[in-house]
């Protein structure tokens, strides 16, 4: 895989303990994304290209938590309800211990607003509140992004689609993603949708 590092960035999506085996919202084989992402990050770092890591960072009682709805706290319209996960300051919210953070030039925390979730690395789920990532990349002259992480059918998917909409050349590192596959078939559907939207799937090995 040939990369023009001068205008490219690597974005590692939500490689956190709660999304890996043993976590509160574990993705099957979620930890298998770590090695290929570390390999890619080392190449970006050697070329002094930016490496961004996103981190789900929910307050307790977040609107996407099924427990919050059960307690009658609220129900955010259009939000999928999940088990409590990636709560701020907990071990579950930490990056996977094997993920090499030394190449990371920026950590983007998302989903920290109690009333709205955030799947995309670029926007909250209200589809209008930016995370600041696009502005950061533009300032560095980046026009191409390479994505990997968790999960293929949610945070990676929405990040990739937003990257295309924001006119970044967008590549998915196919060996560095894993899906929740909820509902069943959602991972394959997401991959097809990304390809049809202009995301290029590349073998990163």
Could you walk me through the main structural features you see in this protein, from its secondary elements to its overall organization?
With 205 residues, the chain is an alpha/beta fold. It has a single domain (5-56, 95-202), classed as 3-Layer(aba) Sandwich (Rossmann fold), CATH 3.40.50. The protein is 23% helix and 18% strand. It is built from 5 helices and 6 strands, in the order βαβαβαβαβαβ. It has helices spanning 34-46, 66-70, 133-139, 155-165, 186-196, and strands spanning 8-13, 51-56, 106-110, 144-150, 169-178, 200-202. Strands 3-2-1-4-5-6 form a 6-stranded parallel sheet, with helices on both faces. Strand 4, helix 4 and strand 5 (169-178) form a beta-alpha-beta unit. The longest helix is centred in the first third of the chain and has 13 residues, at 34-46. The chain starts with 7 loop residues before the first strand and ends with a strand.
């Amino acid at each position: 895989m040939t990369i023009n590092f001068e205008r490219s960035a690597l974005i590692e999506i939500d490689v956190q303990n709660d999304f890996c085996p043993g976590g509160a919202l574990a993705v099957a084989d979620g930890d298998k994304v770590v090695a290929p992402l570390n390999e890619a990050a080392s190449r970006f770092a050697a070329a002094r290209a930016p490496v961004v890591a996103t981190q789900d960072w929910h307050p307790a009682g977040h609107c996407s938590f099924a427990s919050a709805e059960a307690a009658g706290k609220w129900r955010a319209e259009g939000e999928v309800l999940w088990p409590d996960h990636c709560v701020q300051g907990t071990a579950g919210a930490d990056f996977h211990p094997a993920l090499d953070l030394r190449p990371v030039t920026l950590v983007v925390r998302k989903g920290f607003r109690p009333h709205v979730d955030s799947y995309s690395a670029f926007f909250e789920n209200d589809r209008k509140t930016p995370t600041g990532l696009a502005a950061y990349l533009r300032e560095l002259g980046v026009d191409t992004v390479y994505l990997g992480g968790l999960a293929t059918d949610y945070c990676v998917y929405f990040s990739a689609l937003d990257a295309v909409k924001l006119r970044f050349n967008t590549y998915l590192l196919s060996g560095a993603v894993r899906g929740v596959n909820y509902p069943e078939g959602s991972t394959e559907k997401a991959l097809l949708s990304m390809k049809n939207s202009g995301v290029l799937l590349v073998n990163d090995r």
